[in-house]
Design brief:
- This protein has 248 residues and is an alpha/beta fold.
- The chain has a single domain, classed as NAD(P)-binding Rossmann-like Domain (Rossmann fold), CATH 3.40.50.720.
- A seven-stranded parallel sheet has the order 3-2-1-4-5-6-7, with helices on both faces.
- Helix 5 packs parallel to helix 6.
Length: 248
């Protein structure tokens, strides 16, 4: 049986590192993509020693949209045009107060969390629609389920990504391609370091394991850890007249 190849974009993030282990230990071949080439080489060496995984590396700059088409072509060349799936793991999170005061901070989150994702996932969607098999998955956030004072600019970028993925999922359903939206709560990574009062803080290993299982099940949406499914269901049904008086 031919080895299946999976592309992980944003492979130097904490969750992506753990997700790469999930695939590698099950003998998938991997294409790891990110800006930091040295860090990619370190991750690849570790996976090679641990699991004997076949790994290729690609440079990817999320914000340099003009390079995305060429990047995608290189990835397809790496796997002889037989890419089983793609997982988007990159993103940005800045304090709400900074984003409110500085448009550049808001713009950086919008570009990293939404615009760049659409740019690369449009290419993936076109590929899989023609291929008629495979999967797409992307890391979003529970923050996209409802706007709240503490992180509504970040949350709005994830809300936009959620709707985009929902539309792609509907588009590709008839092509036998699964599209999985992963909605983690706060994760104990560098992105959340130093932030106070983060509920249900989860290790990246947990998020990666849940993500891998969701991809294998061809799930549409997964909340991780699982209690967030209930928490967000409750928060979504609170009437707006009450919600606006709540401090969150």
């Amino acid at each position: 049986m031919k080895t299946k190849t999976v592309l992980i974009i944003g492979a130097t993030s904490g969750i992506a590192r753990e997700l790469a282990k999930e695939f590698a230990r099950r003998k998938y071949a991997l294409i790891l993509a990110a800006r930091d080439g040295e860090e990619l080489e370190t991750i690849a060496a570790d996976l090679g020693v641990r699991y004997g995984a076949k790994i290729s590396l690609q440079s990817f700059d999320a914000l340099n949209y003009r390079t995305h088409a060429a990047f995608w072509k290189r990835c397809l060349a790496d796997c002889d045009n037989d890419l089983h799936g793609v997982v988007v793991c990159f993103g940005a999170l800045a304090p709400q107060e900074e984003a409110e005061r500085d448009w550049a901070v808001s713009r950086a989150m919008i570009d990293a969390n939404y615009t760049s994702c659409v740019s690369i996932l449009n290419l993936a969607a076109n590929y899989y629609e023609e291929r008629k098999r495979g999967f797409i998955a992307a890391l979003s956030s529970v923050a996209g389920d409802r706007g709240r004072t503490g992180n509504y600019i970040y949350g709005s970028t994830k809300s936009g990504l959620n709707v985009y993925l929902q539309g792609v999922r509907q588009r590709l359903a008839k092509s036998n391609v699964s599209v999985t939206t992963v909605k983690p709560g706060p994760v104990d990574t560098g992105m959340t370091w130093g932030m106070d009062k983060l509920p249900l803080l989860a290790p990246p290993e947990k998020i990666a394991a849940d993500t891998f299982r969701a991809i294998r099940r061809r799930a549409d949406v997964v909340y991780t850890p699982a209690p967030w499914l209930i928490v967000m269901a409750i928060l979504r049904i609170i009437p707006e007249r009450i919600w606006k008086k709540i401090s969150l």
